[in-house]
Design goal:
The chain is built from 12 helices and 21 strands. It is an alpha/beta fold. A hairpin with a 3-residue loop joins strand 1 and strand 2. Helix 10 crosses helix 12. The radius of gyration is 24 Å and the shape is globular. The protein starts with a strand and ends with a helix.
């Protein structure tokens, strides 16, 4: 019999769901933020997997976190000369029109790593300025000096005629050892800024995702593993490594798909899916179907790829309680994560979290947490809640109730 295993990596826990002969069992493993593959492989080892009888579906936040935390690969951009600044110019829209102090997030590729070369293709695919060998030689030399890990290639109107992009990619693959991606493969359609931004995102998160998935491939049969895409579909390990931008909402997409299916089986078509994890809560509106969009912004970077329309707020079980500059109670978006995690985990946490508040209010059982696998540090958690409450002139119960209400 074939076992089906679902895996979801989160900021605090890595979750496993096993379906075998009609039975469903669940298991949690503390996440390992420094190397998410360790938690996945540890959980699979605990489940005694690795045989040819296992089919694995994996939702991951590796690409998401790399983009949100600006911890992707050192990336260069190769584009048509004169369009090197398009990544910063964008569409000149201001997200907050009346905020005179608004600041745009820094581009994923700084100016010194953006290279323009002489070539030009028209909107109907006609070659207006041919690509010269001398240009390619100079480009290789400059890229070699920058020592980048990834390169995004995006030429004007390459969706109509990708010959110049293909020529550049072929040369770069021969001369350099870097993750190279081109716009005609990632997003072969017009609208130059969105195509360029999406290609850069794919290059930026590509090496991170490729390294993570290659570690999994060393211990698993790649043909037995499927990776959840942002649109709710599945791709192979190889496809996810090459087109990592398609997985930037991989984890939340799994929650929306699963929640909608459970609701449908219960006889409900109009649903709001609610997926609360350790760091964030993801909400999706499903009016009879899972809604999708082709336009999303993740970490300030526009991505024009099909994604499930999900709204995310920074309120999860590990979200930290604090006081804002005006003295009011605040929860999140900072999270205790997996290390050290909430105070009640006894791993060195010092600030109260939503989980600590729920434990103090009696909503969590200290004796049956994770099916009794983990004993909670009840007194340490209570002490932190009481200390925090004193700074706000509240009782401990009032502070704990306030934390959960705000979350």
């Amino acid at each position: 019999m074939t076992r089906k295993i679902g895996i979801d990596t989160g900021g605090t826990f890595t979750d496993f769901v096993v379906v075998e002969e009609g039975r469903v069992s669940v298991y949690k493993e503390p996440s390992t933020p420094d190397n998410p593959a360790r938690a996945v492989l540890a959980g699979l080892k605990r489940l005694a997997t690795g045989t040819t009888a296992d089919r694995i579906v994996h939702g991951s936040t590796v690409a998401t976190n790399a983009l949100l935390e600006q911890k992707g690969a050192s990336t260069a951009l190769v584009t048509t000369r004169g369009f090197e600044d398009l990544l910063e110019i964008g569409r000149q829209t201001r997200p907050r029109i009346y905020d005179i102090n608004v600041s745009k997030p820094p581009p994923l590729v700084p100016l010194e790593r953006r290279f323009g070369i002489d070539e030009r293709v028209g909107p109907h695919g006609e070659v207006l300025a041919p690509l010269r060998e001398a240009e390619l030689a100079g480009l290789v030399r400059r890229l070699r000096e920058t020592r980048v890990e990834a390169i995004a290639v995006c030429f004007l109107h390459a969706y109509a005629n990708p010959s110049h992009e293909r020529a550049v990619v072929d040369v770069l693959n021969e001369e350099l050892s870097a993750f190279i991606t081109s716009s005609h493969e990632v997003l072969p359609e017009f609208r130059e800024f969105e195509r360029l931004s999406t290609t850069v995102v794919n290059a930026y998160v590509g090496p991170v995702m490729a390294n993570y998935l290659s570690q999994l491939a060393e211990h698993l049969r790649p043909d037995d593993v499927r990776i959840m895409q942002s649109n709710g579909g599945l791709v192979s390990l190889h496809a996810a490594q090459r087109f990592a931008a398609q997985t930037i909402l991989s984890g939340p997409a799994g929650g929306a798909v699963g929640g909608f299916e459970i609701g449908r089986l219960a006889g409900h078509d109009n649903l709001i899916t609610f997926d609360m994890g350790g760091t964030s809560t993801d909400v999706g509106l499903c009016p009879g179907t899972i809604t999708r969009t082709n336009e999303s912004v993740v970490g300030g970077a526009p991505v024009r790829l099909p994604v499930i329309d999900i709204h995310t707020v920074g309120a999860g079980g590990g979200s930290l309680a604090s006081r804002d500059p005006g003295g009011s109670l605040r929860v999140g978006p900072q999270s205790a994560g997996a290390e050290p995690g909430p105070v009640c985990y006894g791993l060195g946490g010092t600030k109260p979290t939503v989980t600590d508040a729920n434990l103090y209010l009696g909503r969590l059982s200290p004796h049956h947490f994770l099916d009794g696998q983990r004993q909670l540090a009840v007194q340490q958690s209570a002490d932190v809640i009481q200390s925090f409450a004193a700074t706000m002139d509240l009782s401990a119960a009032e502070a704990a109730e306030g934390i959960t209400r705000i979350a």
